[in-house]
Prior knowledge:
Elements: E1 3-5, H1 9-19, H2 25-43, E2 49-55, E3 60-66, E4 70-77, H3 84-90, E5 95-103, E6 110-116, E7 124-129, E8 132-133, H4 137-148, E9 154-161, H5 163-172, E10 177-183, E11 186-187, E12 193-194, H6 200-205
Parallel strand pairs: 1-10, 4-5, 4-7, 7-9, 8-9, 9-10
Antiparallel strand pairs: 2-3, 5-6, 11-12
The structure holds 1-O-pyrophosphono-5-O-phosphono-alpha-D-ribofuranose and uracil.
Amino acid sequence: xxxxxxxxxxxxxxxxxxxxxxxxxxxxRELITEVTMLMAFEAMRDLELEDVQIKTPVETATVxxxxxxxxxxxAILRAGLIMVDGILQLVPAAKVGxxxxxxxxxxxxxxxxxxxxxxxxxxxxxxxxxPMLATGGSAVDAIAEVKKFGATQIxxxxxxxxxxxxxxxxxxxxxxxxxxxALDSHLNDHAYIVPGLGDAGDRIYGTx
Length: 208
Ligand code: PRP
Ligand code: URA
């Protein structure tokens, strides 16, 4: 599956502000929401359409509307939560699932503490949301959970990815397309993305 990097000027400009350590939580949240909406625009480019007849005030017209599978958004807690609202503004009928994981400080592997997915997720196109794809452990675990419930059409949306995380998702879930706003250089000794943006959850919620 291809990796899509959205290098649109608006996305790159807003991402620069997101990365800046001087950006406080309020602006950080708003910018992530805006970047997510712009990313969704591209990630949903292949949604199916169908012809529908409507009457405009002028005449009857055949127009295009969304058809096919409905959508599900799956947020990886905590940070992925911030990406949900922007996409819901675009596709308000999408259902939302949550998977709670945190990285074990020693092993850096994900520890799952919560999962609640839409009951009909197997009938939906799924967008797994997390601002950060570092080692890839959290994303690989979340995608496996989504697949356990029968979902087959899955895309992963990350604001920033490290090559290590991309490689791991590609290895363990080769059928999942990854869409990112930036592919950064590498992980540091603490498995943080370089240059990255720091700890996404802490910056969103002001917990550090
Ligand atoms: C961050 C981030 C991802 C994960 C990425 O969450 O939001 O979920 O790390 O790292 P990985 O690719 O190496 O798994 P964190 O574990 O810090 O939890 P939080 O969102 O609750 O702060
Ligand atoms: N989680 C984050 O929030 N940031 C990173 O750089 C890596 C994992």
